Amino acid sequence: MCALKYLLEASHRLYYTAREVFPGVGAVNPSLDFPKLMEGVHNLVGNMRREKYEKVLRYYPNVEVLDGKAKFESPTAIKVVGTAHEKTIYAKNFIVATGSRPTAPPIEGLEQTGYITSDSVWNLEYKPETLAVIGGGAIGLELGQAFRHLGSEVTVLEAMPRIVPPAEPEVSETLQGVLEDEGVKFQLKVRIARVYKKDGKKALEVVTAQGKRELVVDEILVATGRAPNTDMLDLDKAGVRTDERGFIVVDKGMRTSNPNIYSAGDCVSKRLMLETLAAREGVVAATNILGGSEEVDYSTTPWAVFTNPQVASVGYTEDEVMAKMNACACRIVDLDRVAKAGIMGSERGLIKLVLDPYTYKVIGVHALTPNATEYIVEGALAIKYGLTYSDLINTTHVFPTLAEGVKLAAQSFIRPVDRMSCCVE
């Protein structure tokens, strides 16, 4: 999703440049050429495709690339049909890595009225002045904040009681407050009854606990989930089982129900859809085809939401630990206790540390800070190697950094951090 991150960076710079953050440093009035910005997105994607994929494949003389659509004819054969060729390939092993696509809920009138997704938003030729975002997850919030920063009036509609449901409640609540202060509107615990055209715009009938209300906007962004690209593969002919949504069921070694066929990436039935996780799954699948016995460790896989501040999380949440162990050792350090946050003028956020209540090993790290994605790997490493909160305390961190907040969270288990001076070991 490099295109999305490019748009986020551009929108953040536009928005924050126009606002005074430091005394004596005046804000400026930057301009926006939306078509040119989208042209930059397309150029980035095209360059990444050439440099990171097409050219890379040329370095491997034993790799043949066939453009076309493939489907299984048997457990040992697939047929590839392209515009200028048709070829049947026989093999003992296959890796299915067909990815996923955005999916829309069955809302009356949505298809007829029209909408955009994270795949088609890049085809916009104009900036919508008003935007409804259906879905308060990562993609919905990232694009919602991006368009708000570009000047659109944005309303996020979410069926659940809070945004980013997988995140810690404190993270969701604080992030919502930050986004609301920037002008993003939220309607939670709502249902979209129907969508229709009205006076050249798009209208949504929103059902709340208080009744129905109408929301009229220029454009609708649907960000409610993704569907696997498996429906045209004839997986049944290969003996490959899928779940009720069509995602391929695999074990930790990425083997499907046919032990000679493996799968990796977003077409796999799992909790997280991440580029880095897909790459790891591909490595595990290839290694095991060659006789290895690798497994994917999902417990140390971090995930993130690239809003500002960023959400970054790895490991267990407090609720998960309580459900599993009926006890939890958890501490939260508010971002205003971290010196670097004050220096940056960005003190709204938090870092939460979750420990095994019996061994005091780190089993969860959850952050809502600027650049949280840059240091969440510290939490992943702590979980992977069984570190305790004492190990974090006894590891000297650079001062001043946001990553120091992880150490402060560990120190909060043994002393009140609001009574500590900077750099206290």
UniProtKB/TrEMBL annotation:
Which Gene3D superfamilies would you find in this protein's record?
Answer: 3.30.390.30, FAD/NAD(P)-binding domain (3.50.50.60)
Q: Which SUPFAM superfamilies match?
A: FAD/NAD(P)-binding domain, FAD/NAD-linked reductases, dimerisation (C-terminal) domain
Q: Which GO terms describe its molecular function?
A: flavin adenine dinucleotide binding; mercury (II) reductase (NADP+) activity; mercury ion binding; NAD(P)H dehydrogenase (quinone) activity; NADP binding
A single BP term in Gene Ontology: detoxification of mercury ion
The similarity comment for this entry is: Belongs to the class-I pyridine nucleotide-disulfide oxidoreductase family.
Q: Which residues form a coiled coil?
A: none
Which InterPro entries does the protein's record reference? FAD/NAD-bd_sf, FAD/NAD-binding_dom, FAD/NAD-linked_Rdtase_dimer_sf, Mercury_reductase_MerA, Pyr_nucl-diS_OxRdtase_dimer
Q: What are the residue boundaries of the FAD/NAD(P)-binding domain, all occurrences included?
A: 39-282
* Listed name of the protein: Mercury(II) reductase
Pfam families under this entry?
Answer: Pyr_redox_2, Pyr_redox_dim
Named cofactor requirement(s): FAD
Annotated Pyridine nucleotide-disulphide oxidoreductase dimerisation domain ranges read 301-409
Q: Which UniProt keywords are given for this protein, alphabetically ordered? A: FAD, Flavoprotein, Oxidoreductase
Q: Which organism is it from?
A: Candidatus Marsarchaeota G2 archaeon BE_D
